[in-house]
């Protein structure tokens, strides 16, 4: 397999001098469809490596400029894989423009700050995103155990990849995981999650202006909500900034609907 990848890499560099990107893509597509250039063991292979012309190069990464780095990008630096958390462009007088980035080590979860020149070469890593289902949290390792819905294979993901959002994880919740060489580099949950109010403060006084109060959710987080929210209510929370969005509408009758039904039922019996 390494021989095949080396051939593709050399071919790309050779073609780049004389052909356009469109011509290169067509040439690779023709080669992959015919598979005549592959060694015999790979001619009948259905490996995803040959699913598209660029899948082989994605495993190797690509050169990029420092100015192109954005939050969410994954890079390789000194043999380690990092995810860009923040990126800010600054100018240092005669020193030229630089980009200040906050990096998170995918393996350890530790964060560090680095500076890159805008024209500095950076090794970008291309990742694949897949959908998984949350199963449970392993109390011994602290890892989040997920399941691939089609193959039912389980994947252990370090808790730090979810950041502060891991507290929102619920049974059978769909989450997205970015993978590089079958290793998780980052994980995300839906931006809207339903939570139950466990404890609620009582407003001290009425006011003409909208009032908010603090409530404790069933996952341990405290958020600001309108004063009409009470204990036991289900609310929709924005998992990005942990803010209240709306009250979840429950199916079935509301308390007022139930009361009307009871009175109607009693009147029917009396009549």
Low-confidence runs: 32-60
How would you state the average pLDDT, rounded? 75
Order of helices and strands: HHHHEEEEEEEEEEEEEEEEH
Number of helices: 5
Report how far the terminal alpha carbons are from each other.
85 Å
Structural class, judged by helices and strands? alpha+beta
Radius of gyration, CA atoms, in whole angstroms: 27 Å
- What's the story with the biggest beta sheet? 6 strands, antiparallel
What is the spatial order of strands in the main beta sheet? 1-6-2-3-4-5
- Helix % is 10-25%
Give a count of the beta strands, DSSP E runs of length 2 or more.
16
Search tags:
271 residues, alpha+beta, six-stranded antiparallel beta sheet, 5 helices, 16 strands, 38% strand
Description:
By secondary structure, this protein is of the alpha+beta class. About 20% of the residues lie in helices and about 40% in strands. It is built from five helices and 16 strands. It has helices at about 1-20, 20-35, 40-45, 55-60, 255-270; strands at about 60-65, 75, 80-90, 95-105, 110-115, 120-125, 130-135, 145, 155, 175-180, 185-190, 190-200, 210-215, 220-225, 235-240, 245. The protein has a six-stranded antiparallel β-sheet with strand order 1-6-2-3-4-5. The protein has a five-stranded antiparallel β-sheet with strand order 9-8-7-10-11, with no helix packed on it. The longest helix is centred in the first third of the chain and has 17 residues, at about 1-20. The N and C termini lie far apart (about 85 Å). Residues about 30-60 have low confidence and may be disordered.
């Amino acid at each position: 397999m390494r021989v095949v990848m080396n051939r593709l890499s050399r071919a790309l560099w050779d073609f780049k001098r004389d052909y356009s990107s469109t011509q290169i893509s067509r040439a690779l597509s023709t080669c992959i469809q015919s598979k005549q250039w592959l060694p015999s063991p790979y001619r009948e292979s259905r490996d995803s490596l040959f699913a598209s012309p660029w899948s082989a190069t994605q495993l190797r990464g690509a050169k990029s400029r420092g100015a192109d780095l954005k939050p969410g990008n994954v890079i390789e630096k000194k043999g380690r894989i990092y995810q860009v958390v923040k990126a800010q462009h600054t100018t240092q007088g005669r020193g030229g423009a630089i980009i200040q980035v906050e990096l998170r080590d995918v393996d350890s979860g530790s964060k560090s700050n680095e500076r890159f020149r805008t024209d500095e070469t950076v090794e970008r890593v291309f990742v694949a995103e897949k959908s998984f289902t949350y199963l449970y949290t392993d109390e011994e390792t602290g890892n989040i155990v997920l399941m691939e819905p089609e193959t039912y294979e389980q994947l252990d993901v370090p808790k730090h990849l979810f950041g502060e959002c891991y507290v929102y994880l619920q049974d059978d919740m769909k989450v997205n995981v970015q993978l590089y060489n079958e290793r998780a580099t980052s994980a995300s949950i839906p931006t809207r999650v339903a939570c139950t109010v466990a404890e609620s403060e009582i407003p001290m006084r009425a006011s003409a202006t909208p009032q908010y109060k603090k409530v404790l959710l069933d996952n341990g987080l405290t958020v600001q909500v309108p004063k009409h929210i009470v204990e036991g209510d289900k609310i929709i929370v924005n998992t990005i900034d942990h803010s209240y969005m709306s009250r979840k509408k429950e199916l079935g009758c509301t308390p007022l609907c139930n009361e009307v039904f009871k009175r109607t039922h009693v009147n029917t019996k009396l009549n």
